[in-house]
Amino acid sequence: MNWDNTDPGGWNEAGVYSGFQVGQRTTLNEGSIENKGIEFEGSYVLTDAWSLNGNFTVMDSEFTEFCDVLSAGGNWRLPADGVAPVTGVSCVDMSGNTPPEISTSSYAIGVAYAAPFGDSWNLRGRLDLRNNGPQWMDTANVMKIGERNLVNGSVTLSNDTMSARFYVANLLDDDTPRHASIGTHWGANGATSPRGLLWTPTRPREMGVELSYSF
190-194, long-range: CB within 8 Å, 24+ apart, which pairs? Predict the structure, then answer.
């Protein structure tokens, strides 16, 4: 395929664009992953007003076959010990490593309350804990984010026309990043350019009140 497409009628017929202005992208199936795990989910009604729910997951995941070109080149610059199929480019064998963004364990626990309040009002409340275990952020298993615990809650008082809701998100003010990745310094894109760390922060503790009226 002629990626530049300088043929008559092509998008680059005049040859105006060249070098970094012309890009190519494709997807290759280069490896395989093996996943084993167990998941449990359930709920229990304690009383007419109170209920519990939760889930628990354990996951064992690993590359059974994968040779990473980026880890040998621009990202971590690890010693190459293989050659990628199809392309023939030097790569690093990741067999046995854990794929990125997968927690070996996670769980969630929630308690809820719902009951009449007075003659025409309803009171609802909820408190939830969500836990995600540590996760590798790259195929080479070099960069990892730690365990995250998010606690959210709310209390709502409502009737047929009005509603008032108090809520809190990230009650424990957990500041573990949601995601992290390797990147380049601005304007430095060469193979030997210094690398920087990019991350997505978790929103800090947030509290608020929501009021609504229907007419």
Answer: 191/73, 191/74
**Secondary structure class of 71 (helix, strand, coil):** helix
pTM over 0.85: no
Within 10 angstroms of residue 11's Cβ, the number of other Cβ atoms is 12
Cα(43)–Cα(50) distance, rounded to whole angstroms? 11
Q: Is residue 133 part of a domain?
A: yes
**Token pair belonging to 136:** 């590798």
Burial 131-144 (b: 16+ CB within 10 A, else e): bbbebbbbbbbebe
Q: Is residue 120 part of a domain?
A: yes
What is the Cα–Cα distance from 197 to 41, expressed in whole angstroms?
Answer: 36
pLDDT of the residue at 1: 47
Number of structural domains found in the chain: 1
Q: Identify the segments of the chain with pLDDT beneath 50.
A: 1
Q: Record the tokens describing residue 137, joined without a space.
A: 């952020």
